[in-house]
Amino acid sequence: MRIGFDLGGTKMLAGVLDGENNLLGRSKAKTGGGGNDEVISQILEVTRAAIAAAGNPEITAMGIAVPGPIDIGLGMILEPPNLNLRNAPLAKILKQELGFPVVLENDVNAGLWGEYVAGSARGYQHVIGIFPGTGIGGGIILEGRLFRGKMGSAGEIGHITVQSDGRLCGCGNFGCLETVASKTAIARDLAVLAMNGRSPVLAAAGASDIRMVKSGLIAKALKAKDPGVAEVVQRAAMFLGIGMAAMVNTFDPELIVVGGGLVEKLGDSFLKAAETSMRARAMPRLVEGVAVKAASLSDNAAVIGAADLAGRSLAS
Amino acid sequence: MRIGFDLGGTKMLAGVLDGENNLLGRSKAKTGGGGNDEVISQILEVTRAAIAAAGNPEITAMGIAVPGPIDIGLGMILEPPNLNLRNAPLAKILKQELGFPVVLENDVNAGLWGEYVAGSARGYQHVIGIFPGTGIGGGIILEGRLFRGKMGSAGEIGHITVQSDGRLCGCGNFGCLETVASKTAIARDLAVLAMNGRSPVLAAAGASDIRMVKSGLIAKALKAKDPGVAEVVQRAAMFLGIGMAAMVNTFDPELIVVGGGLVEKLGDSFLKAAETSMRARAMPRLVEGVAVKAASLSDNAAVIGAADLAGRSLAS
Q1: Average pLDDT in the B299-309 region?
Q2: Closest by alpha carbon to A153, among B282, B203, B123?
Q3: Which terminus of chain A, N or C, has less C-beta within 10 A?
């Protein structure tokens, strides 16, 4: 029995898994903003609640998926975005309190690995994962192994340039994929439609403030056939396909799995539009044999992936 | 003793190597356009001449670097560009004639591997190779191994989109890296400077015909301080850096090695301009520890790499 934990900026989720990655018990909470002590005691509470929900089995390892870059050796998050946790040797602290080994993993890598062992990517050996959300996360599985790069930061595909003279990105570069294909990119364009009244649904939801533009609202505005919304979403899907094509030409993968809240809420038509763009843009010979699938495990992906990676890491 | 062979569209080159990858004998010829029989008899002739030049040692394996995608299993070139060789099971034919095993490799992969075992990339484990020429070739070494993708086509980084609304590329896509950072991209802009007389050196060389724009001529026009030429070259270097930044963000590599005739002729200032652009564009945390080096083996890179890969392939 292993436990997987997904520590996000807004919520945290724990799950107990058996040897076949079946979820036996779960627990969750909203992530507090009070700093190291609060967040760590929340993690302990949610972890213990999940173990109790699974009937108090013996746990051999815990994997915890965290946002941003990590130092695997130190078991520490390096630059936690949207998470009030500073310089905490998280793995060490949790191990002391819980009594079993704890392994950190980047949340995008954990989510992709979950899809690989138990979701859409099962059975493939060369897989690229793309997760459009506030930014765009990426993960890489080559020859059946997670590829992390020289310091664990490989897969920042949200920051490849697709418009060399494009908009300023949060990373300091211009025209990154994130600036045109993320939920934030969509929100920025929709805010104008909300402000100028072209989309009543968005206006009613106060979407001129881009913080109000959640994936569910975008889906609702699309369904209402608000003028302009379809065009904005279609344009983001087109750009997402350009990023996917870059991955096809670079990695020659078997599968691109696309996940995250945006894809879950906008559904098949969004993914199909991105795939169409990808197939028009990638080299024909390379893209021919590439499958595109939606991620299938949703919130459980990172939980399952983190638990599985922790188990493997301790077995090796 | 192994023999490495670089089969190009304009010339072919063979070299005999000892166990430490020292070149003991070489031979070369201009590649003929007469079709399978002529090209194959040329390959045999040049191979035998190189063996003779090395003092007729016993050869255990031959690696042959060829342009374009290959079928490693069939030992066959799939879509040979600029090479009149159709549906030839090259490895099999050469083995029959020469009496030792022959292994095919894509020429960009072979060249990068040569730099890895005997040139600029020695001692690194995560290396991206970029070779701007008529197009832009790319090669990938991860954890000390050549990464080929699901069917041997990984590394087509000349065809990642950097200008989503850019020029039509030969591959059918728009705004590929090749359309703005290759020798062909430079030639296209310089042809205008030749035609309108802004560059006397280019005009005198008949460079309004882009086939006349070789790397050496670009270097000569730069040295003559022809107005406009520096700007065109600088712009290509800037775009090359954008492509390099995409590789940094995607792979988190230790080293980017840049080679090919353009870099050899334009020298350090061109590479420095590309590196400056790369460092401005890539994510700061990722690019900090990345080295950029010029390839050091020139024409010998693919010969050495092909021989070394053939030796390893037969040993495993």
Answers
A1: 97
A2: B282
A3: C
| Chosen from A79, A244, A252 to mutate, greatest number of chain B CBs within 10 A | A252
The rounded distance, in Å, linking the Cα atoms of A40 and B230 is: 57
Contact flag B150-A125 (C-beta cutoff 8 Å): yes
| Whether A239 and A93 share a structural domain | no
Measured between CA atoms, how close is A129 to chain B, in angstroms? 12
From the list B151, B155, B164, the residue facing A289 with the nearest CB is B151
Q: Do residues A194 and A208 touch, judged by C-beta distance below 8 A?
A: yes
CB–CB of B172 and A252 under 8 A?
no
Structural domain count of chain A: 2
C-beta separation of B102 from B113 below 8 A: no
In chain A, which residue's Cα lies nearest the Cα of B174? A281
Determine if the pTM surpasses 0.95. Answer: no
Contacts of A136 (CB under 8 A, 6+ apart): A130, A157, A158, A177, A178, A181, A182, A243
Query: Do the domain assignments include residue A86?
Result: yes
- Which tens digit of pLDDT belongs to each residue from B94-148? 999 999 999 999 999 999 999 999 999 999 999 999 999 989 999 999 999 999 9
Asked if B149 lies within 8 A of A282 by C-beta distance, the reply is no
A156 residue type, one letter? E
pLDDT, tens digit, 9 for 90 and up, residues A111-143: 999 999 999 999 999 999 999 998 999 999 999
Strand partners of residue A25? A16
Closest chain A residue to the Cα of B162, Cα to Cα: A162
Lookup: tokens for A297: 């495990």
Residue A18 is predicted with a pLDDT of 95
The CATH number assigned to the domain holding B61 equals 3.30.420.40
Residue A118 lies in a domain: no
Q: Which tokens hold the place of A164?
A: 């060399």
Beta pairing partners, A21: none
Smallest Cβ–Cβ distance between A69 and the set B79, B151, B285 belongs to B285
Residue A119 lies in a domain: no
Are A48 and A166 members of one domain?
no
Q: Please answer yes or no on whether B245 and A173 come within 8 Å at the CB atom.
A: yes
Could you tell me which chain B residue has the CA closest to the CA of A279? B173
